[in-house]
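Design a sequence for this backbone.
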């Protein structure tokens, strides 16, 4: 794995994962749309000929989203469809930010996450924006204690439909 590290302007963190499929030309268009001015700590990890990850951070006050309505509208114009979780236990995640305690680490952390999935044929874009901060007496905080929002982008050009099935996503227009 060859990671290319590059610093950009800004300071924060948002997580976005792109699983895509019209090849490098489409991926370049989505990259240009989803890598924002002000991004910093940008790095790229090629996973295979059909998949790669891009991550960066943004300095943003919660509940602002590094990737939101203006980018979503452009994705729609380009033929992408926003998927919704078909799992009734995930209904809140379809709407906006959720938070939970990540107790897999010591000390436990509060994760604030906004997660969306987008589909176009066998392409999928999974976008997760995240803040990570301390817990409050072991419980998740209602607001992050920092302005670092993380964005991760992963493009996969051939597994979008399978990913939607596995994630129990409804990607009907």
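Sequence:
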């Amino acid at each position: 794995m060859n990671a290319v590290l590059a610093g950009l302007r800004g300071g924060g963190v948002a997580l976005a994962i792109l699983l895509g499929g019209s090849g490098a030309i489409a991926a370049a268009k989505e990259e240009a749309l989803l890598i924002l001015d002000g991004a910093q700590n940008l790095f790229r990890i090629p996973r295979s000929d059909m998949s790669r990850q891009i991550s960066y951070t943004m300095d943003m006050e919660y509940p602002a989203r590094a990737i939101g309505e203006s980018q979503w509208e452009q994705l729609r114009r380009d033929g992408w469809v926003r998927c919704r979780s078909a799992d009734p236990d995930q209904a809140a995640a379809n709407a906006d930010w959720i938070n939970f305690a990540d107790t897999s680490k010591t000390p436990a952390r509060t994760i604030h996450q906004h997660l969306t999935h987008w589909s176009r044929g066998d392409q999928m874009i999974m976008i997760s924006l995240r803040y990570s901060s301390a817990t409050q007496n072991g419980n998740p905080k209602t607001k992050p204690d920092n302005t670092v929002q993380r964005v991760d982008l992963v493009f996969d050009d051939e597994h979008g439909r399978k990913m939607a099935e596995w994630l129990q996503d409804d990607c009907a227009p």
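Strands lie at 4-6, 17-19, 40-48, 51-59, 81-85, 98-102, 109-120, 123-134, 148-156, 169-170.
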